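Lab manual, section 2.4: Encoding a predicted structure.

Procedure: take the sequence of the chain (433 residues), apply the prediction step described in section 2.3, and record the output as structure tokens. A sample record is shown.
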Amino acid sequence: MNLLYKNPLRTIVIFGALLRIIILVFYQHISTFPDSDGYRELSTLLTNLNLSGYFGYRSPGYPLLLSLANGNFYIVIFLQFLIGVASMVVLYKNMLLLKFSSKNALFATLVMNSFLHVAFYETCILTESLTLFFMTFVFNVMLNNYFNNKSIKTDLLMAFLLAYLVFIKPFYIFLPILIYGFFILKNFNAGIFRSSKIIILFFPIMIFLGWSYVNKINTGYFVPTTFYGYNLSQNCVYFAEKTSPKYEEISKIYVRHREEKISQGKDVSMSIWDAYNDIQEATGLSFVDLSFELSQYSKELIKNNPADYLKQVTVSWYDFWRTDIYWNETQFKVKKSAPAFIWVWDIQHYLLRFFKIAFLFNILLLLFSFMKNRTFSSEIIITTIIIVTSLLQAFSTYGTNSRFSYPFESLMIVVVLLQFKKLWLDFRTKKIF
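Recorded output:
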């Protein structure tokens, strides 16, 4: 056991490699999903250095990884395994920055990365593994006394990390704004706006606007993704019929497909995609033009039915706290191993759910601590970023919301462990009695 703790980084790398080799041996499958085709299409265009005519489905952050692998999914999975192990190392260093002992940080890191959905995400052609790495790295820079650090190099590093997160998923454009806001709150003075930390706003915003301009050239719409109308309409699925005569044709088709989903016991959130062909045929609109039309339809629905919208936002927010795994249970190479993996995941799923519930309850303790001390501790900053993410994604779309929470799951666990650590120390010193 002492050998494991003697060189923690080596232990993490060996553990991470062994876990992924085990999954490779038993699974031997690359999982693709509806999103995967869009990433593959854009990666081909990027490889050919020609974005002319691209419909703007996806942003280039993840497709660039596919291009680096020349579109070879086996190489992509290998790279994602390397990225996954690197994320483990950064997570371990984050825990050290939060004053965990080396032994406790190592043990927690190994446990958190033994959750099967972590490695199985790496077998998917999805953004989550890359997003997790950059998100974990952002918090590593932030936890390393970032708000008091005056190094331009550090600001440039943070700007790059945040910009690339926006490149992967434009949704994250709020993150640099939120982090810069914390910097202002923690260091407010007359000269604060002359700080080089303004860079962390400039780079991500330029990426966001630049990619939106590329889409403007190709589609006529200045948007980071032409999925925006479809995504917004997903949040209107349960009150899609409460519209004006102007959108009655779209509404009838949407509602019909929604009711079919309900009667079949299927995922209602994806009804708009089942309705897509029928709506397109009825309206004669292209994909991008229909996205704009759906955005106008959805905005009218939301404006006229705010209570229904907020009710749906609550459902989307609740789904953020779910924990899902992305795999194909029927595609295990060693068929007899599938039940064992499913059994392990069933146990891990409940453990993750426990930590997420504990994280939500811990918000009250942190709020009390902030009211008492008036200081922005690391736990408060981490928690605020996660809660803001959960709310913004809930207002944006409905469907696969748990994927938005995945890059933050390890941070939720770390915050809960920090609270347990404080309560234990208080108990030992009898401060809680």
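Check your result against the sample. The mean pLDDT is 94.
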